[in-house]
Write a structure and sequence with these properties.
- The structure is a single chain.
- This protein is α/β, with parallel strands linked by helices.
- Strand 31 and strand 32 form a beta hairpin.
Length: about 1900
């Protein structure tokens, strides 16, 4: 939207920063001591703003550096800036093994992982285009009737009238009867209904249709009738007909003939009419009488039950019998065994039946099945049409093949039947939805015009489901496309469709919500095309995508975020891209870099290496031989390194290649596919030569995967009898008999278990175990092969179960894996390790590398089989891996080659080798005596491979070829293409422009083919390598590095034409990596610019890079109303939070230190018995059995094994497991529940689930049964068992826990495993039951367990607030925890004792810890987190706080700095921190400490945007943006910007005026305070940190209580003075006994005070229904005023009629809100003005009542400045309005929603509310003061919060007015302007916390100035006042 000319001139100029700031733009990411995986203590600096490529051989440590170290730290630090609630849904990375990383920006990873494997996941769902499409179809698609094809609209009286006029004119204007249908209920007679109608004036029925009467509303000629009459008839007919109207064209009248009818209702006249015009107000096709439901976004989602096809449940296919497998060779006759399953002895009877019934029907048994007639074929398959059931027709009629399989399904409970069925099952398209995945009704909706549709899809190819009843011609004439048509379009054409989308066909009007959705669709489709994915369809299953395609889809998300200062980490983005398309991906990366981002790319492709600013080569070898940086520099500097394998290949020192073969072309050596036409294949015929390396290549999207994966491989599988998906469309497959088997090797992972290793994968470990089982010592001891297995048997270590490590779960930190202390990581028992072969045990062998193992077993008897299976590992270049190395630790390239080694091992040997369990199952060759080899099909086998690895891969391929096999690869790698024996090149382009064979032949020949992009790429590749080699030779040694590198300069944050809230088309630039302050009058738009635009947009863009699951919990903010925002980095907000938390919130929990301490005590603490105070120890089974026998003697006992302890979930799988183990019940939350059917548990409630083992009578004769049950229970319960005992006839049962791991050796009490929740006083598992975790006595409070814990805690806080005095909990002495938790000690201290110490003391305790090596491993991450948080608390000056200090007792300044410490400790760089008045609650001394901290943060390379009015902050800013000139609608413009000096020189700037000429104090003459003046005396105040304070405050004066943060100001003013005074005055006014004082010994001098009022910092309202008029309270008077008008009285309206919160007078469409919310599902909801009331909130009848020509809606929209004169004659309304004007709120509207108010506005409204009460107080004063105005004492808590300097001046005048009227005003304040105006000052201190709590000085301003030596306030006041 273009900006008006007047506002365009307000665009800010790019500000200039100080020199020291601009120098920060070149901040580097500094990595020191990286040791992740195999990295060798790497030190590295990565330059920001550059494209860095990291390369190296597979397994050298690239991913360890880039992903596990760099990305993990950048992502983890930014995620930690979110709330704890949000973080639990975000995938926070593990902390890497590194000494330190500095200067890291927030990181986003774009990798190849696709976590979703379900076939419901598609390209559309991955990219979220489907989510936007379903919103668009629900709101803007046109519904067409499935029967007639006509558009179905909702008819209105207006639309019906227009249509009737047209129809009547065409028909010659006949008489018509407008009727409505009435259905006669079953329990009524027709006569009764007619009588009822007659009573209402309806005496004519036009026609009867069964039980429906068509009642006449009116008869007329449309052409001559008045419009009003027609409209009235239509409205009434629609109302009575429930939305249905039938218009009959009348003929001659005919009297009714039914005698019965004439007898009862002779008034009814019928007219026979052949013509009816039908209308409906619903989605109802009147012509076909079909009603459709309203569309909902979920109706267009196949992942939602509302929209998914009921047959296939949204999968688009079903598992059924595949006739292609049942009849694999249609060339066979029925008598020759065409039906394969009947050729076995088991089903010979079926073959006999076939012969009998076919002979009887004259169907030939010797004719090939394909040559039988269609009816005969159907008879064979379907059977006799008259078949009824097996019982009736089994021996009489032919059942057919399908009924045979139905019969098998009924026997599927038998294992061998299930195995048989699996051989003939396959996925087939769903017959119900025909692959559309959706319900038929969803396909009835169409989007766009016919022109839109025809431009992208020929009419003949439109989807025509079988539920469409109209003709094909009708379908092709319809406008638009269905959602399934769009799903099948290539994205390139889909982009074209939405670019020109026309909504006129559906009659929809594109509103703001529609524009938002359409914009999202267009941008996402555009990005997909930009990264070369325009050939994909939205319906493509995501599990069929290659890793490269997945990564490029993820890359589109990064493009869409438009972030800057972000670290993007990419994992081989070239995968799946043809060299021709590589420029696209390079262009995308350059765009990201140009936007000011840093890119680090793991890559092996030369083209991307050439495009890099910097190249890092890691090596020199793989695995343990890698982990070092071999080369670091520009690509052209490669010649300077000698040991880089990358340089060797790029510079031509080494070449990739192999000896090519000449392939035979005869029928015995070729497989041919004819007529392949799947997806974009254009009926091509392809021959694949065998016994050689055949490469299928072509540009991206040209049809390679369609040809090989969708057609060739499934067709071969089917030909070989393997279960598979249905092959893609093709005509014939020839030559499949030339191979024995086909093996498809894709990029899927090979295993996730750490027990899987290279030796076991290739089968070598079985041979090794066989050798050890034959050793003499093993034979002597009777050891078998199973003894030497670490997966089972009794030879493995029982402690670690053969894993070799102890897994320590660390909750929200990275889990820790410790070497098993018993076996020392060897996995086996010591006795098993004693068996040795050639001095090596079985565990020693697992530590050998492959090459070492080959040498070791070369001379050992039986070692030949080991060598045979290990040799393939060496052949594929994995000779360096250890035999026992866990498979998950292998890199992607290593895993690919390990899979290939498995195939080599399987194929080696004369017998074909042994099968590998983890590889696809082999089939037997047709002719074992004449093997023809296998066809191996590889999908991009070079994924993740370096040049060196590709050379080894080609060598492995040669091994397969030498063994007589054949290879087909889909590949883009030019080295592999060049080394191939035969090439098949598809193209010429991608998508619709592809699908053709461009070239077949040798690599030499393709170079000469001008049509082939592959040939051109081969020529360019050779030329580029030669050019690189030449450039490195001519490179000057002295040439500076900067010649090659052009780092992206730091970009300013640019906001263009912002119109959010009151901003008036503002354009502004905020300097990157600078300190910017946004200031201006309250309500001028500061928070709108800083938070609603800058922060929301920066965080929203980062969140869009996360998965959809996470975003549903951390919902992004709505897009602001702004033309564009450029250069925005990820943002972090540090906002004002007025609420400081409940009593269970402490300093430790606010800073999250307590979370880490809980984890430390759980993992390293020693548990003591709370009764005996002795450490707990393990307990034996015998001891447990003896205790049960003793304690439960004579009782019945159920032995329970605990499976789930206090965990949330459904536990359906657990019930299935229990059922499989033979258990019928589980005990859930104390009740026995059957495992089948398993009920649906509350997934959000914590459950305890136990497995009942047995119920026994505890007696000596049953001891054996009891012990057996205990053994089983301890086994299932992992060392813990529960005993539920009860006496006969008693309902009371006792539950006792026993543990073999944790029990008191003294009293025998068992304890559960330690859990972090045990130490949480917010959880019932850990809190003290007497105080429920508050540390205070809660006697008399009853907790409601039916409500949420959060709600119950709020009730508890309210209960404690109502108590008169604090009472320490005597059970825990304020420790908050139960005895079990307090008895866990670490270094002889309980956790409660540590948190009772100050931050300084806790830091001293942590730093003094001396840990054992095992403890260091566990506590490493914990202590780092604790130390960093403690250090930052000290840095912001809070070292004096104790960690158990309750949040409500914190001062505002302390709470603000705790939040700062929690947020700023992340140590990020490149982030924009947006702060909302961080100086609130801070003394000037503390403010300077804070500003020093902020400047350190900015010096790290971050951008600071601070909303602030504080003069010190403004002066220290690099750049200031002054908004104004007024507030509200008078603000929203940039008045001035620049430095403080520039603002002073600008006459338009209010801020500059006050900076240039501060207020001259005093503005009002200070009232002297004499010794005899009335005072309030406080004596012995000792609450919280107050130290027996005695002081006084004069009455009828302006007093200020100030002091450094945490010194005790709020405690003295609010909790001692205000609360006691309020209670005393209330007791006196009600003549009650004076209450006991709290927090002080005496309080005197208050008797003159008549009332006490407090204005605190609580918010005024959270809903849009709250507004200034309702909050202050004068809205009720306005409503009464309108109710007294004559018009209102005449209509009977009372005050309630003029309420927008109650039904009656408010607008029903928006329920009085004035806006309607459009729910956008995963997008932020959109609020639009109500169309009915246009935002006025009331209905038209209410708005018709006026007072002084203004309606009630007009008053709501009126500004305060206009309302003051308007209501001048109404004192009760005028007074509060005038007060609002006096405090500077004249610009607000009366109905402005409270959530849109700034902090300063809300605070002043509260002040006005209290001031207004003075005039409305009708209560008389007591005694002699009855004739005087009441003396009010006001306590105000920092009233200057959020106020600009100009607003402070207004506030000062209001406060002086109050004092002049005889009132007392007490302020808690740090603002120096207010302190300078005070009549009396009390300065608390001298420091905060325990260092405060005393009165440093009390007196007038001169007295405080004299005390500057000891008073911080006196010192800063001396500097402030001239």
């Amino acid at each position: 939207m273009p900006a008006p000319a007047s506002s365009r001139k307000r665009k800010s100029v790019a500000p200039a920063l100080p020199a020291n700031v601009t120098a920060l733009a070149a901040t580097d990411i500094r990595i020191r001591g990286a040791r992740q995986n195999n990295l060798k203590n790497i030190d590295l600096d990565i330059h920001t703003g550059e494209l860095t490529v990291v390369t190296g051989v597979s397994g050298s440590g690239k991913s360890s550096l880039v992903f596990d170290t760099l990305y993990a730290e950048g992502q983890r630090r930014y995620v930690e800036t979110f709330s704890p609630y949000a973080r639990q849904f975000l995938d926070r990375m593990d902390k890497p093994q590194v000494d330190r990383i500095e200067g890291i920006p927030p990181a986003i990873a774009i990798d190849q992982t696709n976590p979703v494997r379900t076939s419901r996941s598609t390209v559309g769902t991955m990219t979220e285009v489907n989510d936007h499409l379903k919103l668009m179809f629900a709101r803007f698609a046109a519904l067409h009737c499935q029967s007639c094809g006509e558009q179905v609209r909702r008819d209105t009286p207006d639309s019906i009238y227009v249509d009737l006029k047209l129809r009547a004119a065409k028909a010659g204007d006949p008489r018509v009867a407008i009727t409505f249908p009435v259905t006669v209920p079953e329990n009524f007679k027709e006569a009764e209904v007619e009588q009822f109608l007659s009573a209402q004036g309806y005496t004519r029925v036009q026609q009867r249709d069964g039980a429906t009467l068509h009642v006449v509303q009116d008869r007329m000629r449309i052409g001559s009738a008045e419009k009003a009459r027609v409209m009235e008839a239509l409205e009434a007919a629609l109302l009575h007909g429930k939305g249905r109207v039938n218009v009959f064209v009348l003929d001659a009248p005919v009297q009714a003939t039914e005698a019965s009818h004439q007898a009862v209702s002779s008034f009814v006249v019928r007219h026979s009419s052949s013509t009816q015009w039908l209308y409906s107000a619903d989605l109802h096709c009147a012509a076909c009488d079909i009603t459709y439901s309203d569309p909902h976004p979920s109706s267009f989602s196949f992942n939602n039950p509302l929209g998914a096809c009921e047959t296939c449940r949204g999968f688009g296919r079903v598992i059924g019998v595949d006739l292609g497998l049942v009849i694999p060779d249609e060339g066979k006759a029925l008598g020759e065994g065409a039906i394969k399953p009947w050729q076995t002895a088991s089903f010979k009877e079926c073959q006999d039946d076939l012969k009998k019934y076919m002979t009887a029907r004259n169907i030939p048994m010797d004719v090939p099945f394909r040559d039988l007639g269609p009816n005969d074929r159907r008879y064979v398959i379907e059977g006799d049409d008259t078949w009824r059931s097996w019982e009736k027709d089994a021996n009489k009629k032919w059942y057919g093949v399908m009924r045979f399989f139905d019969w098998l399904e009924s026997k599927a409970y038998k294992m061998h039947i299930r195995v048989l069925l699996s051989k003939y099952r396959a996925y087939t398209p769903c017959n119900a939805c025909e692959g559309a995945r959706l319900k038929p009704t969803s396909i009835n909706f169409r989007l766009g015009s016919k022109a839109n549709a025809d431009a992208v899809l020929p009419p003949a190819r439109r989807f025509s489901p079988r539920h469409f009843k109209f003709s094909r011609d009708t379908l092709e004439a319809l406008p638009g496309l269905t959602i399934h048509d769009l799903m099948l379009l290539p994205i390139e054409r889909l982009r074209q469709f939405f670019a020109t989308l026309d909504f006129t066909a559906s009659g929809a009007v594109l509103d703001e919500a529609g524009e938002l959705v359409l914009g999202e669709v267009r941008s996402r489709l555009g990005y997909l095309c930009d990264v070369g994915l325009g050939y994909l369809t939205l319906d493509r299953q995501s599990r069929t995508l290659s890793g490269g395609e997945v990564q490029r889809i993820n890359l589109t998300t990064a493009l869409g975020t438009s972030l800057t200062n972000t670290l993007f980490v990419l994992d081989e983005p070239s995968i799946g891209l043809h060299p021709r398309d590589m420029t696209r991906i390079i262009g995308v990366m350059q765009r990201l870099k140009g936007a000011g981002n840093t890119l680090v790319v793991v890559e092996h492709d030369p083209q991307i290496m050439f495009a890099a600013d910097r190249l890092l080569d890691i090596g020199p070898g793989p695995g343990e031989r890698g982990g070092n940086i071999i080369f670091d520099g520009a690509p052209r500097e490669l010649a300077s390194t000698q040991n880089s394998r990358t340089a060797a290949y790029l510079l031509g020192r080494e070449r990739l290649g192999r000896k090519r073969k000449t392939l035979a072309a005869d029928e015995q050596h070729v497989i041919t596919v004819t007529g392949a036409r799947e997806n974009n294949l254009k009926s091509i015929t392809v021959a694949f030569p065998l016994r050689g390396l055949v490469t299928v290549t072509g540009v991206s999207g040209s049809g390679k995967s369609s040809l090989v994966q969708d057609v060739l491989v499934p067709a071969l599988y089917k030909a070989k009898g393997k279960t598979t998906d249905a092959p893609g469309a093709y005509d014939l497959l020839l030559g499949h008999q030339n191979i024995d088997d086909v093996v498809f090797v894709d990029q899927s992972p090979i295993g996730k278990s750490s027990r899987s290793n290279p030796a076991s994968f290739v089968g070598a470990f079985d041979a090794i175990r066989a050798i050890y089982a034959k050793a003499s010592l093993a034979v002597e001891r009777g050891y078998t092969q199973g003894t030497f297995s670490f997966n089972a048997g009794n030879g493995r270590c029982p402690t670690c179960s053969g894993s070799g490590f102890e897994h320590v779960e660390m909750q929200f930190l990275s889990d820790v894996y410790l070497r098993c202390p018993d076996c020392d990581g060897t996995r086996f028992r010591a006795e098993v390790r004693e068996v040795k072969v050639n001095d090596k045990s079985i565990s020693d062998v697992l530590e050998l590398t492959v090459s070492e193992a080959i040498l070791f077993f070369a001379d050992i008897k039986g070692g030949a089989e080991v060598l045979r299976t290990l040799q393939p590992l060496a052949d594929v270049g994995l000779d360096y891996v250890r035999l026992g190395q866990p498979v998950p630790t292998l890199s992607g390239g290593e895993a690919q080659r390990l899979k290939l080694a498995g195939h080599l091992a399987e194929s080696a040997g004369p017998d074909g080798g042994r099968p590998i369990a983890m590889l696809p199952k082999r089939i037997k060759p047709d002719d074992p005596g004449n093997p023809r080899g296998k066809l191996f099909v590889f999908d991009e086998p070079t994924t993740g491979l370096h040049f060196d690895d590709i050379a080894k891969l080609l060598g492995a391929f040669d091994k397969l070829l030498d063994a007589g096999h054949s290879i087909v690869v889909i590949e883009h790698n030019l080295d592999v293409i060049n080394a191939s024996d035969w090439l098949i090149d598809l193209g010429p382009e991608g998508g619709d422009a592809g699908g053709e064979i461009i070239f077949t032949g040798t690599p030499e020949a393709i170079r000469r083919d001008t049509r082939s992009h592959t040939g051109k790429a081969l020529n360019d590749y050779d030329r580029d390598l030669a050019a690189l080699a030449e450039s490195t030779r001519t490179l000057k040694a002295a040439e500076p590095r900067g010649v090659y590198l052009q780092r992206a300069a730091a970009r300013n944050i640019s906001v263009l034409h912002a119109r959010e809230h009151n901003l008036k088309n503002v354009s502004v630039e905020i300097p990157a990596k600078g300190f910017t302050v946004i200031t201006g009058p309250s309500g001028s738009g500061k928070s709108t610019l800083a938070f609603d635009i800058i922060f929301n947009e920066g965080q929203r863009r980062y969140l869009e890079s996360l998965n959809a699951y996470a975003r549903q919990f951390v919902q992004p903010s709505a897009r602001p109303d702004v033309d564009a925002i450029h250069g925005i980095p990820p943002t972090v907000a540090i906002e004002q939070r007025v609420s400081r938390g409940g009593r269970k919130s402490t300093v430790a929990t606010l800073t999250e230190i307590y979370h880490f301490l809980r984890l430390l005590w759980m993992k390293l603490g020693t548990q003591y018995c709370p009764t005996c105070d002795v450490p707990i120890e393990p307990q034996s089974l015998d001891v447990i059995a003896a205790r049960v026998m003793k304690e439960c003697k004579g009782k019945h006992a159920t032995i329970l094994a605990p499976l789930v302890v206090n965990r949330k979930g459904l536990y359906t799988d657990l019930a299935k497991w229990a059922k499989g183990k033979g258990f019928a019940h589980l005990r859930v939350d104390g009740e026995l529940i059957p495992v089948a059917p398993w009920p649906r548990l509350d997934r959000f409630a914590e459950h305890n689930i136990e497995l009942p083992m047995a119920t026994v009578e505890v007696a000596a004769k049953h001891e054996k049964d009891l012990r057996a049950a205990l053994v089983s229970g301890l086994d299932y319960g992992k060392g813990v068992v529960q005993v539920l005992s009860w006496k006969n006839g008693s309902a009371a049962a006792e539950l006792t826990v026993f543990s073999t791991k944790r029990a008191c050796p003294s009293c025998g009490t068992s304890f559960a495993e330690l859990d972090p929740r045990l130490f949480s006083f917010n959880s019932k598992h850990g809190w003290c039951t007497s105080c429920q975790g508050t540390g205070e006595s809660v006697k008399g409070f009853k907790r409601d367990d039916r409500v949420s814990e959060e709600f119950a805690d709020r009730e508890l806080d309210a209960f404690l607030d109502a108590k008169e005095a604090f009472e320490l909990c005597t059970s825990c002495d304020g420790a908050r925890l139960n005895p079990v938790a307090r008895s866990v000690r670490f270094r002889e201290q309980g956790i409660h004792a540590v948190v009772a110490q100050s931050v300084i003391d806790v830091e001293r305790f942590v730093n003094a810890l001396k840990l054992t090596p095992r403890e260091e491993e566990i506590a490493r991450d914990i202590l780092v987190e604790v130390k960093s948080r403690l250090a930052f608390l000290q840095e912001v000056g809070l070292g004096y706080l104790t960690l158990d200090r309750s949040a409500p007792t914190l001062s505002g300044g302390e709470a603000q700095r705790i939040r700062l410490a929690a947020q700023l400790g992340s140590n990020l760089q490149g982030v924009a921190y947006v702060l909302d008045e961080p100086t609130i609650g801070l003394h000037a001394r503390d403010n300077r400490i804070l500003l020093d901290t902020l400047e350190k943060l900015q010096a790290k390379g971050n951008t600071l945007v601070v909303v602030e009015h504080d003069e010190d902050t403004i002066k220290r800013a690099h750049h200031i943006i002054d908004l104004g000139p007024g507030a509200g609608v008078r603000g929203g413009e940039i008045v001035a910007e620049g430095t403080a000096a520039e603002l002073k020189a600008n006459p338009k700037s209010i801020t500059g005026r006050f900076l240039k000429k501060p207020l001259a104090h005093p503005l009002h003459q200070r009232a002297p305070v004499g010794k005899k003046d009335a005072r309030i005396e406080v004596k012995g105040a000792d609450l919280h940190n107050l130290k027996n304070v005695s002081t006084s405050l004069p009455l009828a004066r302006l007093s200020v209580i100030t002091g450094v943060s945490g010194s005790g100001k709020s405690t003295l003013a609010r909790e001692v003075l205000h609360e006691n005074l309020q209670a005393l005055v209330a007791a006196r006014n009600t003549r009650k006994k004076a209450p006991a004082l709290t927090g002080c010994k005496a309080l005197t001098g208050w008797e003159e005070v008549d009332r006490v009022l407090e204005v605190d910092q609580t918010p005024i309202g959270k809903t849009p229904r709250s507004c200034p008029a309702t909050y202050i309270g004068f809205w009720d008077n306005i409503r009464k005023l309108y109710a007294e008008t004559s018009e209102a009285k005449m209509r009977g309206y009372g005050p309630g009629r003029f309420s927008f919160n109650a039904a009656g007078g408010r607008c029903d469409a928006c329920a009085g809100a004035g806006v309607v919310t459009v729910e956008m599902n995963f997008l932020p909801d959109v609020k639009l003005p109500c169309d009915v009331c246009n935002g006025s909130r009331f209905n038209s009848e209410t708005l018709s009542v006026t007072w002084r020509d203004k309606s009630i809606g007009d008053v709501l929209a009126m500004e305060v400045d206009d309302a003051v004169p308007f209501f001048a004659s109404m004192p009760s309304i005028y007074h509060p309005l005038k007060l609002m004007q006096d405090v500077g709120l004249g610009y607000l509207t009366l109905g402005q929603p409270s959530p849109t108010l700034s902090g300063g506005e809300a605070q002043r409204i509260k002040l006005v509310t209290e001031l207004a009460k003075v005039r409305t107080d009708a209560g008389p004063a007591r005694g002699a003061r009855a004739s005087k105005a009441p003396h009010t004492l006001y306590v105000l808590d920092e009233p200057t919060v959020g106020l600009h300097m100009a607003d402070v001046e207004k506030l000062i005048h209001v406060l002086h007015r109050l004092v002049d009227a005889g009132n007392t005003v007490i302020l808690i304040e740090h603002n120096l302007d207010l302190i300078a105006e005070a009549d009396w000052i009390i300065d608390m201190g001298p420091e905060g916390g325990t260092g405060g709590g005393t009165v440093v000085v009390a007196g007038d301003v001169p007295t405080v100035l004299k005390a500057k030596a000891k008073s911080h306030t006196g010192q800063v006041l001396t500097e402030f006042l001239p």
